[in-house]
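Re-run with default settings, no changes from the original entry. Doing this only to confirm the output is reproducible before filing.
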Amino acid sequence: MSSTSPVRLRALVPLLLITFALSACDDKSPAEEKAPPSAVKVETVRVQPLAITTELNGRILAPRTAEVRARVAGVVLKRVYREGSDIKQGDVLFRIDPAPFQADFDSARASLARAEATLFQARLQDQRYRELIGINAISRQEHDNARAAFLQADADVAAAKAALERAKLNLGYATVTAPISGRIGRALVTEGALVGQNETTPLATIQQLDPIHADVTQSTRELNALRRALRAGELQQVGQDQASATLIQDDGTPYPLPGKLLFSDISVDPSTGQITLRSEFPNPDLDLLPGSFIRVRLEQAVKQLGISVPQRAILRDSAGNPKVMLVDAEQRISERSVVLGSVQEDRWIVSDGLAPGDRVVVEGLQHISAGDQVEVDNAGKDALPIVQSNGQ
C-alpha cells in the first residue's frame, strides 16, 4: 500500500490545478462580467420646409399628333420622306398621280374662259338694250330678257371660278405634305397603292416629341385631403407656374431634365374616381417616347414646419403602428409612437410624435431595446436630413 501512494498523489495534482483555475474564474467581479453598451447612430430632429411630393403613375403622350391622310383618290407614285426621320411642316411626304387632277384643272379653266366670253356678250347686249329702251325702240320684255341673260352669265362666271379653285385644290392635294413638324413613323402604304377611294386613307403618323407630355392620375381622395390641409393652413400652395415635376425612369433613376405641371383636369373619371394631371418635360434627345408607362413625382405643396426621419428609423409594433427609438440625455433608450405622413424619397414625413431636438436612432436598432444604456457614435456630428426643401 505504501509503495503505491506517491503514484496516486501524482495523479491527483492535475485535478487540483483545474479546480483552482475554475474557482479563480468564479471570483470575477460583476463589473467585469457586464457587457459594454451598444453603439448607435442618431439623427437630431430639425424643423425645416419640406416639399410635399406625390409619385403618380401615368403614360407619355405626344403634345401634337397628326395622322397624314389622302385627301383625294389616286395611285401613290412615290414616298418622298425617310421613315423615322424628323420633318418640318410643309415637307413633301407622298406624291399621288396628278394626271387626272391636272385634266380636271384644265377643264375647269376652259369652262371659266367660256363663261367669261358669254358674260362679255351678255354685257354688251344689256348695254345696247338699255340705250334702245330709252327711245322706245324695243319692248320692255326684250330689255328684261337681256338683263336676265347678263346676270345669269355673271353667275356662271362665279361658278366656273369656284370649280377652277376646287380643281386647283385637288391638284395640290396630289402632293401630300406634313401638317406639323415632328418625327414621322413608318409608311402605311407603298407605291402603287390606290388611296382615298371612298375614304380618307391614312398614309403615316407624325408626332411632336420635344417637349413631351406626361399624363398621370391621382385619386380624388388624395386630392381632397391635400385641399383640406391647404385650407387649414397646414400646407402652403405651390404656384402653378412654380410647381415642379420629376419623371422616374424604368430603372428607378430620375430623368435628368426637370419638368413642370401644366394643369389638372376639371372632371373626374367616373369609372376610376381619379383626375388627370398633365406635366411637360424637355425631350431634346428623344429618350421619352409616346405610350411609355412612367411615374412622375409632383411637388404639390410645401410644409413650412416639417419634420422627417429616415425610413430605416421607423419600427412597427405588433399591431403595425409606427414607432421610433429615442436617446435621452442620460444615453438611455426610450420608445415613442409617431404619426407618419407621406414618403419623400428615402424619408418619412412625421405628422405627430416628434419635436425639434429629439435624437432618433437611425443605426444599431437591432441591438437595443427600451431602457438600454447606449453609446452614441456619430463621428462627431449628427446626420443631416436629406430632404428637398422648397423644391430645391
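Helices lie at 5-26, 30-33, 99-134, 140-173, 220-231. The two ends are 97 Å apart (CA to CA).
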